[in-house]
Design the sequence.
């Protein structure tokens, strides 16, 4: 990481000119009353862009936020957990509109300056009578404090076990800008947008065309390279607001490099936090596929391995089962010569030329690695220069138990 | 089912002119000594064809059996469980060759008349010193009895909990031919060949070109329409031998229709038995996708749903979660208008026009259906005439527990 990049507290409130607040409205149906709604507000109009789910089934807030982003501007984001407002048809769109309208009235801004995100149960209409008072409460208590950003990060949790925040200060000459964000996401995590929500705020001034380009690039290398269960949800959203309050505008190549690095740092932190908190998972695996004929092939092989139920079960059982990994590579739809494949755990070769290469002592060593909470797996196809890196998890009995029903959200 | 088709006992020994025998050689490493090798032998040379895994990582017995099938003829099949002889490189090919050589010597036939199948652990060399005496024992005790076919069906079990056999007698005018088979398969079951082995024997006389064509067609509608975990293995094999001992040759359109129907009946029985015995699964779901723009689209949607970890977990929890089904349909890569989708459980609508359509009483009724051991799910996309039918299962904690390691095989 660049020495100009300094980790700071504050999440979505780390950057100057942003306020936030959370409310507990009772949208989450079980357990004690918890935060389940929040507002993130820029004191001045901000450049805003988003990256959304590729699922053809898009939740109402995704449809509405895309519409409100057409002009590349926004002032506020309203987020709720406990109900995804997905598969809710026209009434769902109306409900999302009413959420943005209520925020607009409470803040004295236009509804199309308000973005909206929802996460939670699919197929149930939003309880607007609970949401409206929540919006008023949050709007009345907006603050730029670490406590406010923490409450906001908590308010978007569903099956997440911990709130997820990250922020950095970036020196540019004698001045500095800040960037921070929060995310939620635990199950339904897959490349091409996870079931995740993420809001990133920066006080740099960034032209919307560049912000759109760089957010796409960074997302493809962070949030789109993690997978928990291969499912791709209806609500995935990454929103980024840039309000320019720092008076630093991102224009030169050096400034763009610094901004890209900082955005990548925030997204990488949040992506890793999402995987590490995967529903019921017990291990984080850094999977690298190299030597593929193309980058696309490397991703195909990576996803086949990272999403294979059998590979993931083996990892849960501390079994460095290179056979299942090779098997998954074989059906990935990529060029492959099984007799060339090399597989290693934390740098220790498990297979070379498509065959096991360890004696009993070596296998015991591999099993010790696969029993760690975090380890790396390298799959080298020895065919070309295509490479892909993914973060993935194991598949545990706890995952299944947690997902037997989502009534508990 | 046609009235000319009569279910009979006997599995691979049901058809005339076939003998079989099983042996317990100690290839399966745990528990008491169990059958783990068998021979299926035709008394006369038979027409023979096979369908094999599409995985680029092919096990040695797959490579060798394909080679031995080039002339469209075979006399015998040797099968073992406990070791898949996959990812074993050149030594693995040699071991498979030595298995067929040993059978050839024991039976006094040519090695290229012998086909070979293995199932079990991947990446470990075959214990040939245990296999050779097993082949001699089996060759010495060949019989055409229901007990012999049952022992053979048991000998190919790995994590299967029950042996899988099926056989029919088919009346053609005043004469009849017989067809029967056995299969194994429990995990790594996916469309485009499951982790399964299957041997089918018939005493009809069938030209190899027609036998190849019809086996492909029937396989695509039976074994390739089942999925347990979406994984596609290195060893999948369906072999079919036709020895003509019944003196009925399949030549006319009517004879071909009768044969196709009988082959389909055997394969459908075995495919259903494989799904019903899916590792640690508790439910069998008949999934129909209709109204797709094309048959390929229907299959894409069907596989996305049938392989979704979240859909499968919901089923395990008796949760008729149509939202997760719609979500999976949305990322299947097929044409879809979410607002047109209809989802029904055992004929009871759960969602219409992409939205839930039941009150609390209706939802309770749906939950009762989803709690059954077997139920049907219909997904109608209302876009065209494409249709696909799949058999699938839920995803349980037991599945994960069973697959934490395959050391137990």
Sequence:
């Amino acid at each position: 990481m660049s020495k100009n990049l300094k980790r700071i507290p504050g999440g979505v409130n780390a950057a100057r000119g942003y306020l936030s607040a959370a409310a507990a409205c009772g949208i989450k149906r079980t357990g004690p009353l918890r935060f389940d709604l929040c507002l993130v507000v820029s004191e001045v109009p901000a450049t805003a862009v988003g990256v959304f789910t590729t699922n053809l089934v898009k939740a109402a807030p995704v449809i509405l936020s895309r519409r409100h982003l057409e002009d590349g501007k926004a002032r506020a984001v309203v987020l709720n957990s406990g109900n995804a407002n997905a598969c809710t048809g026209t009434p769902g769109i109306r409900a999302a509109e009413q959420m943005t309208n209520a925020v607009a009235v409470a803040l004295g801004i236009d509804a199309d300056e308000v973005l909206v995100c929802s996460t939670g149960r699919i197929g149930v209409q939003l309880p607007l009578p609970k949401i409206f008072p929540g919006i008023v409460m949050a709007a009345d208590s907006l603050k730029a404090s670490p406590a406010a950003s923490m409450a906001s990060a908590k308010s978007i949790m569903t099956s997440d076990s911990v709130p997820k925040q990250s922020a950095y200060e970036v020196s540019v000459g004698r001045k500095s800008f800040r960037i921070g964000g929060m995310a939620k996401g635990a199950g339904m995590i897959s490349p091409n947008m996870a079931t995740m929500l993420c809001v990133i705020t920066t006080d740099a001034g960034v032209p919307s065309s560049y912000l759109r380009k760089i957010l796409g690039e960074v997302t493809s290398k962070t949030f789109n390279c993690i997978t928990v269960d291969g499912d791709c949800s209806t609500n995935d959203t990454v929103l980024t607001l840039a309000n320019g309050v720092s008076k630093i505008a991102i224009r030169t190549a050096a400034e763009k490099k610094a901004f890209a690095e900082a955005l990548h740092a925030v997204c990488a932190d949040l992506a890793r936090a999402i995987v590490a908190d995967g529903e019921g998972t017990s291990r984080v695996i850094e999977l690298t596929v190299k030597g593929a004929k193309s980058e696309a092939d490397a991703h195909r092989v990576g996803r086949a391995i990272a999403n294979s139920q059998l590979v993931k079960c083996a990892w849960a059982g501390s079994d460095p089962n290179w056979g299942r990994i090779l098997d998954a590579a074989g059906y990935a739809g990529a060029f492959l010569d099984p007799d060339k494949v090399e597989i290693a755990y934390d740098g220790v070769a498990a297979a070379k030329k498509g065959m096991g290469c360890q004696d009993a002592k070596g296998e015991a060593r591999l099993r010790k690695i696969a029993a760690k909470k975090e380890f790396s797996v390298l799959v080298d196809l020895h065919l070309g220069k295509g490479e892909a890196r993914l973060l993935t998890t194991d598949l545990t009995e706890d995952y299944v138990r947690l997902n037997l029903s989502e009534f508990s959200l």
In short: The radius of gyration of chain B is 22 Å. Chain B has two domains: 5-276, 284-393.
